[in-house]
Structures are given as structure tokens and as C-alpha cells.
Amino acid sequence: MEKYWNKEIECASRAKMKKLQDERLVAQVKHVYENVKYYRDLMDKKGVKPEDIKGTEDLHKLPFLSKADLREAYPYGLLAKPLSECVRIHSTSGTTGKRVVAFYTQNDVDMWDECCARAITAAGGTEDDVVQVAYGYGLFTGGMGLHGGSHKVGCLTLPMSSGNTERQIQFMQDLEATILCCTPSYAAYIGETIHDMGLSPDDLKLKAGIFGAEPWTEEMRRSIEKSLGIKAFDIYGLTESSGPGVAFECSEQSGMHINEDNFIPEIIDPDTGEVLPEGEVGELVFTSITKEAFPLLRYRTRDLCVLSRKKCSCGRTLIKMAKPMGRSDDMMIIRGVNVFPSQIETVLIEQGYSPNYLIEVDRVNNTDTLDISVEMNPDKFSDKVKDVQKEERALAGAMKDMLGINPKVHLVSPKSIARSEGKAVRVIDRRKLHD
Amino acid sequence: MSNVRQISVFVDNKPNQLAGVMKMIKECKINVRALSLADTSDFGIVRMIVNDTDKAVEKLKAASYAVTVTEVVAISIPDTPGQLSRVLDILGNRNVNLEYLYTFLGKSDRSVSFVIRVDDIENASVALNDGGIIQLTENDIAEM
């Protein structure tokens, strides 16, 4: 039996949802226009007035916001409420440039908790569950987001934060955690450590995991599900719109339901900005229609994905987004070809290697080089140099089939590539293309 | 037949890698009887014969090294001109392909010992036996 946290919303008819979205959008545009000078200027420049927005069908008239706008408006330029009404700040990891800070009123936090509560419920969580939150706590939204959702559902919450993996496993075992929330790369590491400690999934009570904050593949899902003996659910979100919980997976595990009563999604052509029809791949854009303090309208996520309104077996009517094919920030253009780390991960898992890898891109004599370090699988290790080299060539060949370009694969010692307790650093790009 | 087990360990071509392996061996008070290091620009393979193979493998695996155990032939031949050539002829005549070869850390004045890795160990062992070449057993090595 599928359980819902808020059935009325999650299973609402399309007409009812559209009406709700229309009302909220109209009010939100007015709120932003009146309180955020930065966006008002953008609207004025485009010649759009709040009265022009009568419903979701007018969404396309609004100007976009991008990460560059957020950096330009840092820190207070997009704030729509007085700081006295704000109760919290979170920030992006800042790996791709200057940090972005987001502000929350109490209502914003409550909405976010509700979104995460829906995700936890969809993963089978109830007040009888013990939720181990191993996302980082702090400025990063992962920890506090799932923490809030877990409280809301009434689960017993273990606010572990990330790190100290043996202690994580000890608590998981002693306090019988049933749901694990962390990044997929950390989940994989926990799984690996459990086996290294001589334990098996049978020694744990875990039944589900909610993993997000970085791209991961179906292959990685299956590998985590096996090593932890759980069902693994994807969760999506971004600090700019609140945090994890913007979209979440249900029992069908085929895409994530977007909490569209709070976030209206669009898919656009990343080059022209034109809205694309359902089913086409493009850049995901979100409009927050309930956020008070930091309400971003038409925010370009840089995530490439597809939306679908196909009927879901879980009974939810919320629109679904496919797992993003990669954030366009993660996409590398190497020798003119688009390469996503997730493609490399897929090949590694298919070939029986650990999904811990390091991609190094450089430019030598005006040609891009792509070097991928992969941890040796002890089961495939032979005493003969030529066998190891053959294995490297086989991996490079499989990568070439997937990527269209030839990488150089280097096998390195098992566990020699740094494990991540949060978002994994997979790519080092040494090309200096913009100086 | 008297095949001997060789331990191979995958190491990165970086400082301190062999030292790390040797530290493991030292910690379990194991003695290395023969050692060779094959190197490429990226990685190396440490190959060795020790006096307690099981214990060394267990220790290395627990420390997450990629380890493999291979059967090799160990021989002892007189330390006089032409002896190795004779061994190689014996193997060549039976069409045994040699993958690699290295010497024991020997201390005898009159003989020298080799580790020989071949593609067909059964055939090699019979050939060496027929040729009158002394093959060492793991017991011999443990007592060295």
C-alpha cells in the first residue's frame, strides 16, 4: 500500500493543481515585483508587469534568473522579506564559484520540511522508523532538510551528519536505523565499510535509503541497494529553491515527483531559452510559488532532464522529472564532445569496478587530454603486467564506446582514491580556457 | 609436483608504495625469500616468495591491497657457467613460454635459485624433472 504524507496535494487532479498554481503564481509575482528590486528591474527591462501574469500559461513571459544573477545579487539582492522575518540561511557548496546564500522564513522552513516529509513517506517512512541523517549538517541543505522532514513525519531522527563512518555503522546497528539519508557516494562508502568490518546487510535493520545532492546512475543504485540490502530512493533539490525535497522518488523508482504545489517546473532549450514540450530534453527551470524570503522565479538549474505527466503506479499525480543527465556545470566538453561523469560511472560499474574514480582533463599542445583513474578490482588483478594493461585498454575501449572519445585509463590501488563523505569530487579540469 | 606459490601485489608508481607492502610483511615477521618489481609508467607489480604465504596474503588483503597468488616453479641450479641456458633450453624444447624470471635472495656459494613463471606449469615441471633440475618446494623455501 502506497502511503502519502499529503494525499490531497500529492494525488490532486490536474485541474485542482493548476488552479492552486495559478493563484500562487499570481501572488508570488506580485510579491517579488514589489519587494525585489533586482527582479523588478529585469521585468521592467522585459516590459512585463505583474498584471500580465494571470496563470501558469503566462510563466514564459517572465525573465530568467541564473546562477550569475545570484552571484551578482549576493548577498541580499534577491531577498524579498526583511531580515527580521528570516530565521535561517543556507549556502551552496561554492565549488563552481562564489557561494550563493538563500534565506528562509519560518513558513519557508515549514514548506521545506513538508516536502521532505513527503519524500520520507514515499520511501516507506512512518513514525515507527529510525532515520539516520548522514548528510552534512550546516550551511549545506542536505542535513537540515531531511532532518526537518524526519521530525515532521515523527520518525526517530539520528542527526549524525557525515563522517566518522565506523561510528555511523555502529549507531546504525545499535539503534536499528531503518532509513539512511546521505549522498549516494557516501552511501556506497558506508556499504563498502560495512563489508570491510565483516558485517552484512543482515546485521542491520535498514530498509530504505534517500540519496541525493549529486548525480548518480541506475547502476550505482543497484550496487548500493545490494551492499546495504535496501531500496534506494532518489531525491532532488537545490539550495536556490530550498534544498532536497523539490522532487522525490516513489515506489516505482522511475523518476521523481516534483512538489509542484511549491515549485513549477519548465524545460527550456538551454541555448534559446524557449520552452520545450513535455518529453523533450532540456534545461530544468523552477519557479518557487510559495517561498517568501528567497522566491526565485524561473531559476535556471543547469540540470538537463525530461518531464513527464505519464500516470504513475504510486497514484501520485505530481509531475515527474527524470534523473538529471547531469548538471550542465558537471558537463565537460572534451575535444568537442559532451562528457558527463555519470557516463563514466556507468561503464565502471558495468565492468565490475568501484564507482570511485577521478577524471583529469588537461590541454596539451592544444589537444584535450582525458585521464581516468580507476581503482583496481582485486578480483581482476593478475601478476602479469600485460594482463593489467589489457584490462586498462578494455576499460578505455568501453569508455570510448560510451563517450565517443578515447580516454587514457589508469588503474590505481584499491581505496587509493579519496572517499567522500559529502559531495564527491570526481573531476579535476586543469585547462585554462578563459584567461 | 612441487609448485610454489608467489604473491603479487598491485602498487601505484608513486613514492612509498613498495615500502608500504614491506611494512605489512615486517609487521607479521615474515621473511621474503625472492622479490622482483615489475614497473610501468603507471603502476608496478611486486612479486615475492615468502616463508608464510597464507599469513602474508591475509595481512595484505586486510589492508585493501590487490593481491593475487600464482603458482610458479622454483629451481636451484649450480652456480656455474651455462646452467641457466640449460634450463631455458629444457623449457623451450617442450614449447613452454616463459613469462618472467627472477632470482632468490640466495646465500649459497655453490648454487643459485630462480623463480620461473611460465604459461604451462604442469608441462614445465615435468620437463624440468626429466632434465634433472632441482625444484624447490614451499617447505624447502620456508627452511631457507
From TrEMBL, chain A:
Homology family: Belongs to the phenylacetyl-CoA ligase family.
EC category: ligase
Summary of the function given for this chain in its UniProt record: Catalyzes the activation of phenylacetic acid (PA) to phenylacetyl-CoA (PA-CoA).
Pfam families the record matches: AMP-binding (PF00501), AMP-binding_C_2 (PF14535)
EC number, as in UniProt: 6.2.1.30
Gene3D superfamilies noted in UniProt: 3.30.300.30, N-terminal domain of ligase-like (3.40.50.12780)
Swiss-Prot/TrEMBL keywords: Ligase, Nucleotide-binding, Phosphopantetheine, Phosphoprotein
InterPro entries: Adenylate-forming_Reductase (IPR051414), AMP-bd_C_sf (IPR045851), AMP-dep_Lig_C (IPR028154), AMP-dep_synth/lig_dom (IPR000873), ANL_N_sf (IPR042099), PA_CoA_ligase (IPR011880)
AMP-dependent ligase C-terminal domain location: 336-431
Domain AMP-dependent synthetase/ligase residues, every copy: 85-287
Name listed for the protein in its UniProt record: Phenylacetate-coenzyme A ligase
Gene Ontology terms, MF aspect: nucleotide binding; phenylacetate-CoA ligase activity
Catalytic activity reported: 2-phenylacetate + ATP + CoA = phenylacetyl-CoA + AMP + diphosphate
Pathway it works in: Aromatic compound metabolism; phenylacetate degradation
Subunit structure: Monomer.
Automatic annotation (TrEMBL), chain B:
CDD domains the UniProt entry points to: ACT_Bt0572_2
Pfam families: ACT_8
Signal peptide: none
Source domain of life: Bacteria
Record-linked InterPro entries: ACT-like_dom_sf, ACT_dom, ACT_dom_pair
Domain (ACT): residue spans on this chain: 72-144
Protein name (database record): ACT domain-containing protein
Organism this protein belongs to: Ruminococcus flavefaciens 007c
